[in-house]
Amino acid sequence: MHDISLFCSLSVLFILVYIKHRELSSPQAKHPPGPKPVFLIGNVLQIPTASPQFTFTKWLEEYGDMVYLRVFQQPMLVLNSLESARDLLHNRSSIYSDRPNFILLRLMGWENASPQVRYGPQFRRHRRFIQQTFNQSAIEELRPIQEKQISYLLQDIVGSPAQIDDHLRRFSAGIIMKVTYGADVKSINDPLVQIAHHAELLTIESGTPSATLVDYIPALKYIPVWAPLAGFKRNAALVKEAVDTMFNVPYEMVKSQMTSGIASSCMTSRLIAACSPAGVTFLSPEDEEDIKAVAGTMHSASDDTTRCVLSTFILAMVLHPQVFERAQAEMDRVIDLDRLPNLEDRDSLPYLECVLKEACRWNVPIPLGMPHRLVDDDIYRDYYIPKGTTVMANIHAILQNCSQPQLFRPERYMEDSHLPDPRDVIFGFGRRRCPGRHFANRNVWLVAASLVCATIIGKAEDDAGNEITPEAKFLDGFVRHPASFPYSIKFRPEKISALNNWNAALDV
């Protein structure tokens, strides 16, 4: 009896392998080129677990701008050029806008978060919710919040210039917390900031290669939590608790304030009022979950990437003092001594625009973007791309397609007008393009312009007075933050009166 069962099992396995072999060798299945996969496991051993974008970029020379891979039996397509990314993710967005079925993220409680939600009615509803607050015309109403938060940031720098990392964290958290929940964040120790930071850290720490295997071997989700390979399940339970807290606590705060009639206007309060004109007690569970997910996701996504770009900008200014000096000279020609820059000055500061473009190109905040999933078979350049393929745009490779890509050279954007603007590319493609990009772009510009105008950024000195040149080193992770580095930031004495004037005008 045992022999019969074994024979049947082996027969079924042989038939499945044969069918798969016929499928892959058929004329229709001329996939894009890529490294040869290993039987059953595919290309798993050829893809680094840390910073795979560099390996994908090297494969560009060998296989072209489309690299086809298999992770176990899951097909994956890496797009290494702007042309292929736009052709597929933008021009064919109707079939390339889905998300892969991330089992691990579902276990962690992120399944309803806007960047992860599958393409369909819920995605479109989330998108509509976000657009109401962050479309190009709506963000003008957020300008007073931006200006106040910039003022707080500059005051923080005046008081403790050596703690710029903490100040940027408070700024990025404070501005999005105010927009989404109406909360005034005074320090990075604010309970709401700590709750969100805890959830983000746990999510990052739990996304190990062994944990994410469940996304490629779905049967692992059925193993009991006490089993040896179930560590990812135990960690996911901790993350889910933290994520639920991050979504629920600020949301319930706004609901309580609305019930008491003391809520300020914010994204969450407006969405609650729109979904339930009769009052918060009549809000449906579905509406509540969608509002929580949209608000929570906007906070976590905006906070992390904004800090990454601003930290990269400061590192670049420390390493390239001639760039900072040129940007400041341009600023001083445009901005009078008794004021600070505002958005109306932007068109008059073209070199600063080039510096920010180069900062986003030099260190792409999210090098591989967010993965897409193909919902139907497709043919592109005579290549067959099967339904269910995970598609990733290698934004790092796309923005390396320029002369001397390793150098930090803002002038490249003055010399070549055909170069793509990195601040457009880093936000993704098609219907999955970040809906908060206009607001994020303004935040980064306002901070960078204020720092160039009001501070001196340079190298730190050791005890002997020698300058310390930091290493351009970046951390592995979904968001590629600069590693901690020494720096010097000093507030320009001649700009103190300008800050005081601005604070008085803003009533800060």
Automatic annotation (TrEMBL):
Binding annotation for heme: C434
GO molecular function: heme binding; iron ion binding; monooxygenase activity; oxidoreductase activity, acting on paired donors, with incorporation or reduction of molecular oxygen
Subcellular location: Membrane
Superkingdom of the source species: Eukaryota
Record membrane topology: Single-pass membrane protein
Family matches, as Pfam families: p450
Cofactor or coenzyme needed: heme
PROSITE patterns: CYTOCHROME_P450
Gene Ontology CC annotations of this record: membrane
Pathway assigned to this chain's UniProt record: Secondary metabolite biosynthesis
SUPFAM superfamilies: Cytochrome P450 (SSF48264)
Protein family (similarity comment): Belongs to the cytochrome P450 family.
Protein name: Cytochrome P450
Organism whose genome encodes this protein: Lentinula raphanica
